[in-house]
Write a structure and sequence with these properties.
This protein has 211 residues and is α/β, with parallel strands linked by helices. It has eight helices and six strands, in the order βαβαααβααβαββα. The two termini are 18 Å apart. It binds flavin mononucleotide. The site of flavin mononucleotide (FMN) has 20 residues, from α1 and β4.
């Protein structure tokens, strides 16, 4: 049986979402998945980026580590996990721009039945952690993804995260995700991979029965 294929498409400027993404990847790999870790790209000019000290440099650094997510990555995947820092209580434009490139696959019904899940980071505790994750539930539903939340299905959930997905509070980018938050992200990776594997197996069984 082939490995479940998991695409983790995230955006991060100051690395807290990046660290969650890596923990999601580790969890998925531990569950036997093949993983593609991709960083959505900025589309503002370097002049705009330079207004925020370090943005341009960190973007260049991360972009050397991670390829940009593509339409082909989404088609390849059995599961797509989105990661975003909060922007005014909602998804960041960079990740949304990637999601908006998936219209062609959506039109052809090629995303139907894949697994979808989401994680993210805010600056403050009540700054939109949950609203941001829920804002991505809507596009995931439109794309036809089978949304996998976390619930309280693992002991890690009683220490950090939300039932909607792994989260983190960076306190103005001064704090990186600790072991408890990374444990939730790792659980998310394991859960997504195991649900994707189950769906792939069920679909293979259906095809065998039909044949
Ligand atoms: C334009 C903009 C809007 C933001 N809006 C919010 C917000 O509504 N609530 C919040 O808590 N943090 C907000 N933040 C802060 C980031 O979401 C936060 O610093 C996050 O931890 C960054 O994640 P990263 O380290 O992966 O880049 C905003 C940041 C920017 C640049």
């Amino acid at each position: 049986m082939s490995k479940p294929k998991v695409l983790i498409a995230f955006y991060s400027r100051n690395s807290s979402t990046e660290l969650l993404a890596k923990a999601v990847a580790e969890g998925a790999i531990a569950e036997g998945a093949e993983v593609r870790l991709r960083r959505a790209r900025e589309f503002v000019s370097h002049d705009v980026m330079r207004q925020s000290p370090g943005w341009s440099e960190r973007a260049t650094e991360m972009n050397t580590k991670y390829e940009a997510p593509t339409e082909a990555d989404a088609e390849w995947a059995d599961a797509i996990v989105f990661g975003t820092p909060t922007r005014f209580g909602s998804i960041c434009a960079e990740l949304k721009a990637y999601i908006d490139t998936l219209g062609g696959l959506w039109f052809q019904g090629k995303l139907n039945g894949k697994v979808g899940s989401v994680f993210g980071s805010t600056s403050s505790k009540h700054g939109g952690n949950e609203s941001t994750l829920l804002s991505i539930y809507a596009p995931m539903a439109h794309l036809g993804l089978i949304i996998v939340p976390l619930g309280y299905a693992d002991p890690a959930m009683f220490k950090a995260g939300t039932p909607y997905g792994a989260t983190h509070v960076s306190q103005r980018d001064s704090v990186m995700p600790d072991a408890d938050h990374l444990a939730v992200a790792s659980f998310q990776g394991r859960r997504v991979a195991s649900v994707a594997q189950a769906l792939v197996r069920a679909s293979a069984r259906t095809l065998e029965t039909v044949a």
